[in-house]
Amino acid sequence: MKKFLPLAAAFAVTVFGAALVHAQATDDPVKARQTLMKTVGAQTKILGAQAKAGDAFDPEAARAAAMTLAEAAGQVPAAFETEALDGETEAVPAIWENYDDFTQKATALETSAMAAADASSAAEMGTAMQTIGGTCKACHEDYRQKK
Hints:
There is one protein chain. This protein is mostly helical. The protein is built from six helices and no strands. Helix 1 (5-25) packs antiparallel against helix 2, helix 1 packs parallel to helix 3 and helix 5 packs antiparallel against helix 6. The radius of gyration is 15 Å and the shape is elongated. The relative contact order is 0.15.
């Protein structure tokens, strides 16, 4: 299992990197946002696995996922510039009512992801994930529909 973790992480980074490009190419702002947020979630999941990897921690895979997460987070403000709530979306109007706060939270995620790219052990990634998790939670509490 440990042998396949770096390969799986590299594959996921490649797939979700392609999803970022696709998200930018679609004309449907809701679908573009959803693709972007799926990328955020997938990279966060990879980083969470790296935080629990112990001796199998792969700094290259972790760095790639963190940088992809940072790139995606950097695209969040532009993806939400257009107020669109058509179809199935978890976005709430408060995003556009408090757009400056929303974009600050996206920037905080980008910053924390960039810091996670420097993690050199599972323990350091665990600490970085606490910060990343906090930034995600802060945004979801205010700007995502409660389930």
